[in-house]
Each structure stands twice: as C-alpha cells, then as structure tokens.
C-alpha cells in the first residue's frame, strides 16, 4: 500500500491569497465599470432623443403637414414644461399649435430617463415643430443632457432652424 497522502482542496493561505487578488482586481475594475455604464446610458439617451427629433421631421415631410415633439409626463399631452427627461411625445400637429388636439395622432411616446440623468432646454423651448418642408423655423434649441459626472461628460443636442441636429460632448450646461 502506498501511504502518500492526497491533498484535496485549498489551504487557508492559498484561499486568502486568492481572495486578496480578487479584491484588488474588483477595486480597480468597479470604478471603470460604473463609468462604462454611465457613458453607455447617456449615449443611449442622447440617441433616443435624436431619433425622436428625426422621426418628427420625417413625419412632417411624409405627411406634408406640421409635426411636433414636446415634453410630456403623461404620454398624451404636452405637460413637461422645459424638462424633457420625464418623457416626450411626437405627434401629427395638423394645425401647428403645439398641442395635441382631437383627431391628431400621437406617433411616438418617449420614455422617462433612468439613472437620474436630466434633459432640458432653455426657458421658453416648450416644443419643437417641424413644417412640411422639414424646417423647424423659430424652434432652434439646445438640449442639455447631464448625469452625475457633470459638464465634462454632458451631451448637447443642437437643433438649427433648418431642422439639422448636431451633438457635442462636454458642452452642455448642467
């Protein structure tokens, strides 16, 4: 018979070394992961608003009539003031008055933002209306999207009177 002892498992020292290495790796990786999640969230939210603005413009051209996007807290009327982070609606605005009237179709409802991010425009920008030619005359706006990291990681969506939107990173006012 062979009297060699066969060890199964780990010693306490091996276990402590492994846990120490894992703890060090996690302490380095956690902040990077948090930044990754925040960056992904703000990019997705910026793209969501951008696509809704482009949908509004497209619908105005397609319908040969005005279409409006406005902040909305209930998904059926323009009720959000200048705070867009609680959601928005895109609707066919046949009379161009910026309000959802009887018979006007709500095309899209934008969901409220998560993660505590804020999206707002300057005072007075309660809506954006596109005309049948795709212009947003009189509705040039800057949308400021911010998270807890401040201005350096913010997004600005800038809409001009011709209906063109451009985005800038780190230039929004938070």
Describe the SSE topology:
Elements: H1 12-63, E1 67-71, E2 88-92, E3 106-110, E4 118-120, E5 128-130, E6 141-146, E7 155-159, E8 165-169
Antiparallel strand pairs: 1-2, 1-5, 2-3, 4-6, 6-7, 7-8
Brief rundown of the structure:
The chain has 174 residues and is α+β, with helices and mostly antiparallel strands. The chain has one helix and eight strands, in the order αββββββββ.
Evaluate the radius of gyration. Answer: 25 Å
Distance between the termini: 77 Å
How many discrete structural domains?
1
Question: Strand portion, in percent?
Answer: 15-25%
Shape: elongated
Sheet with the most strands, sense and barrel status: 4 strands, antiparallel
User: Could you spell the SSE succession in H and E letters?
Assistant: HEEEEEEEE
Count of separate DSSP helical elements? 1
CATH class: Alpha Beta
Which class best fits the helix and strand makeup? alpha+beta
Q: What is the CATH superfamily label?
A: minor pseudopilin epsh domain
Strand order of the largest sheet: 3-2-1-5
Specify the CATH architecture: 3-Layer(bab) Sandwich
Low-pLDDT stretches: none
